[in-house]
Request: fold
Amino acid sequence: MRVLFVTSEIAPLIKTGGLADVSAALPAELHAMGVDVRVLLPGYAQVLKACPVLESVAQLAGLPGLPEVNLLQGTLPDGVPFWVIDCPEMYQRGGGIYQDEHGQDWPDNALRFGLLSKVAALLGSSATPLQWRPDVVHCNDWQSALTPAYLHYAEGAVPVVMTVHNLAFQGIFPSSVVPELGLSWDSFKPDGAEFYGNLSFLKAGLFYARHITTVSPSYAQEIQKDELGFGLQGLLASRSESLTGILNGIDNAEWNPEADINIAQPYSAANLSGKAASKQALQKHMGLRVDPDIPVLGMVSRFTQQKGLDMVLEIAPELIALPAQLVLLGSGDTDMQRKALDLAHHYPGQIGAYVGFDEGLSHLIEAGADIFLMPSRFEPCGLNQMYSQRYGTPPVVHATGGLRDSVVDCNAATLGRGDATGFVFDMLTTQSLLNTVQRAVTAFHDKGVWTALQRNGMGKNFGWEKSAAAYLKIYSAL
Ligand code: ADP
Reply:
């Protein structure tokens, strides 16, 4: 089985969110299972800097008006071969990969990711200049979602699996980009890539792909309904026969409290004592009062409405009155960033906030916090709630998407069965969030209950084996 895995980010080379983690871990797991999987990604400055020795393997025609691009080849640390599209005018610039340094989307994003899709389609058709040809192309999110639209008009096209990691991002552009992308006008129709007069990359992907997957079973159901369908619920419902939800796994080597260089002391389910050292280190690092008995609430997240951080900020005074301490790490919405920093300033010793991206600190929070907060309004899968279970830090989550599928609410029945791992609330209100954190804090002070909860979570296997096998089954069926 030969699979071309197309992505716009991959950890640790370039990461803005969960897609990067999946793009690193899923191909690695497939590779270990004997699948000949290869990754295709844009040649951002960060990637070329991190991989200075890449071999040029082909010159490819990209988009109309653009010069030929250079395809570079390398091998990822876990043995997965990868190709990088070298096109400096598209990918080598300062700022972020989707936005400039002021947080504005790059004005040529349609071309930048149209190029990614175009190259993927070329490699998946008989026009490829490479010896290697995939059996399946696996695209991820809107950035590579034009691939199946291009392939629809290509000779010798292989089937495409389209994975939705977050339906909220669709890649919508004015129709004027259609000719610039070298896309057939024939595809620009409601039964195709058109979305209310604009071009939608993601809609094209969902329409033309042979099979659609999303990153949790619950989210696969939710996106077929008005509330979370973002205007694509009709199309998704019409394709429900070809839509599968597969829960993401986590990288058990990267996220392992027994061998994590970012935490103060290793610990395990059998011997949890080392966790206290990370709690103390976290309290010191964030300027909190060092106290082993007060529960520390942790949150690591993009600062957006989706993640429900606004609710946490709103009830922060009530949370610390429980009493508890609060640690926030993330970046995004400038208003939320300011509020988080203001709170830390107002409640020194009780609230700590760090605005920015800090991988090491995110590990320390998973280990050093007692309770993890993830009150997302919607959550396609979510990784942090799985990391936190693995680190003995029971999460408080809203019952949505992957959170619903990966956390078991703590009550007498689930505790009795030994499968309780966290705290789940249904109603999305600040009151219900506060009540649920209160429930978690009460449990925290009951040592027997708490240790059981921690051990249940740490004993769960969130590894990729099962999910990778589910993807392989879909590839094989195609
Ligand atoms: P999403 O992809 O919607 O952002 P996920 O929970 O699926 O959410 O994945 C987010 C990933 O990014 C996790 O690995 C999380 O730890 C990481 N992350 C998010 N914000 C930060 C940050 N400010 N610093 C470090 N890691 C972060």
Remarks:
- The mean pLDDT is 97.
- The pocket of adenosine-5'-diphosphate is lined by residues 17-18, 21, 300-302, 329-331, 357-359, 362, 381-384 (CB under 6 Å).
